[in-house]
Amino acid sequence: MDFILFLMVCNYIGTIAFAVSGAVKGVRKKLDIFGISFLSMMTAVGGGIIRDTMANRIPSALTDPTAIYLSIVVALLIYSIAVRIRQDSPLDKRAIILLSQANLVFDAIGLAIFALIGANTGIELELNAITTGILAALTGVGGGIARDLLVNETPIVLKEDVYAVLALFSGIFYHLCVVDWKLPQIPSFISIFAIALIIRLLVIKYKINLPNMETRRKA
Predict the structure, then answer these.
(1) Under a CB-based contact definition with an 8 Å cutoff, are residues 80 and 169 in contact?
(2) Is residue 191 scored above 80 in pLDDT?
(3) Residue 99 half-sphere exposure, CB side, CA atoms within 13 Å?
(4) What does the CA dihedral 185, 190, 192, 195 come to, rounded to 10 degrees?
(5) Could you tell me the CA-to-CA distances from 78 to 10, 23, 36, 42 in Å, in that order?
(6) What CA–CA distance (Å, rounded) separates 16 from 135?
(7) Alpha-carbon distance 215 to 99, whole Å?
(8) Largest CA distance in the chain
């Protein structure tokens, strides 16, 4: 497969994953259909907008609004599912729990994919490994930061989890594989994506967090 086509497919998968994450957050915050759609869109394209702005170019979401349309469609689907869920039904309560768990999985998929897409931008611009890692982190966590700020929450990346650190090191490792070690791009992308996704899911399952002020107080 041509790498440009591969990257486009990955971008659509990441867009859908982050759009679901934003839409589910909007449902949990009891927003209206516009709010859910807007939150879905910002989660999906926010990181890319930050990345492209840092790279001094017009954000790709504005030149090709396919990701915006896709995130709105996803939001409408999530909304149509949410309005059919009744809080007093045991079956629907299980559906709510399943939706929350699916949200974490989709968020992990979006993080892994968009971090590597951001890293690829750094490679295209012939930046060094650290800067590539920073672009990866901005792309991976930017949408989530925008989502949390819009619903008046402290971004999760700032208070728990290894969210940003995982995106940063995924970008650096991808840069080393492609630029320094001259490994093929698509196998490197898929391998690092799989590793990052597994680590992220394990972090979620075992609730592994970076040291913070709350852990210091408990100690």
Answers:
(1) no
(2) yes
(3) 20
(4) -170
(5) 21, 7, 9, 16
(6) 21
(7) 29
(8) 57
As a whole number, mean pLDDT of residues 9-34 equals 94
* Per-residue CA distances from 87 to 6, 8, 69, 128, 206 (Å): 41, 39, 30, 51, 28
Q: Where are the alpha helices (DSSP H) in the chain?
A: 3-28, 33-54, 60-63, 66-82, 90-124, 129-150, 156-159, 163-175, 185-206, 213-218
Span 54-97, pLDDT tens digits: 999 999 999 999 999 999 999 999 999 888 876 656 666 777 77
Q: Is the pTM of this model over 0.90?
A: yes
Q: CA nearest 147: which of 33, 21, 15?
A: 21
Q: Which helix (H) or strand (E) holds 176?
A: none
Determine the average pLDDT of the residues in 184-210.
92
To which residue do tokens 């899911």 refer?
201
